[in-house]
Design goal:
It contains 16 helices and ten strands. By secondary structure, it is α/β, with parallel strands linked by helices. A seven-stranded mixed β-sheet has the order 6-5-4-7-8-10-9, sandwiched between helices. The protein has a three-stranded antiparallel β-sheet with strand order 1-3-2. Helix 4 packs across helix 5 and helix 11 packs parallel to helix 12. Strand 2 and strand 3 form a beta hairpin. The protein folds into two domains: 79 residues, Winged helix-like DNA-binding domain superfamily/Winged helix DNA-binding domain (Arc Repressor Mutant, subunit A, Orthogonal Bundle), CATH 1.10.10; 164 residues, 3-Layer(aba) Sandwich (Rossmann fold). The structure holds S-adenosylmethionine. The site of S-adenosylmethionine has 18 residues, from helix 11.
Amino acid sequence: SGSAADRLARLADGYLVTQLLHTAVALGVPDALARGPRDAVDLAGELGARPGPLHRVLRGLAAEDVLAETGDGRFALTDTGRLLRTGVPGSLRDWVSTRGELYFGAAAGLPTAVRDGGTPYETVHGLPFFAHLSADASRLATFQAAMADRSAREAGAVVAAYDLTGCSSVVDVGGGRGTLLRTVRDGLPGSDVVLFDLPEVVADSDLPAVGGDFFAEVPAGADAYLLSRVLHDWDDDAAVRVLCTCRAAMRPDSVLLVVEAVLPERAADDPAAVRMDLYMLLLLHGRERTAAEYAALCTAAGLRLTRDVPTDAGVHVLETRPA
Ligand code: SAM
């Protein structure tokens, strides 16, 4: 609601909201308020912060309905704010940290990238995205935790939408922390699963795991391969190379499930997919794609797209088989 000017002013302040959320998470405000409402002085003492500025940040979060003011100077979590707690189902805590900590600086490079080309994240950090993550254990952990936050929201919907019954071996290529694979395994008792990702990502996995490079080789001969939110990270040439590596590992009767957002015809029909496409522009050399574009990548890799199965969580399961 409000005038066009109000709406525009609010959009222009989006960066501030990102940093309000990030500040709350970085200081531990949501976990502290989960133990009960507090005022800024109490919270500041508990969290080692300055009461004056903290009070203003808490008010900023209350203005966004992330916190509620109890009327006696204390602040409590709203339903939205509760999702910033650590380790609760549906938590977006690490999702927020990636925005505030990792992506925020790159976003300032968008005008230059649009005018002159280039990938803002690489310009700021001097390294490609995944190499920069791997150079710092805590940064890598934040990113992987954010992927797991999102995957936790999607995995149930993916498994509900696509029936993997009959598959007794599944490899999740670029599977991160294995959130999707764990859900798949739980629905396929007795199946063999393998989590495949960079060695530093799978090092501490509690799932059977193989570390490697999906441009070189992935474990061969499984009934089903998963490729969730991987192709969107890469330009067409690299995406086809990943698909070719998977194709080479597949048996003629294996299936490869590409789990991705599919770009809508009109941006307003799926704003989240369109925003994710902008992240690909800021961070990587990738892009979100339409179903027809995914089909073309598959064809170039000796695969054919046999089904496009939407899920309740926004992502689609694109079923592909050797051509
Ligand atoms: N599949 C997970 C999901 O759906 O949340 C993670 C998706 S994340 C956007 C992309 C994954 O690709 C990361 O876990 C990253 O470590 C992995 N990755 C990047 N380069 C890789 C490579 N060369 N070989 C294997 N994995 C790689």
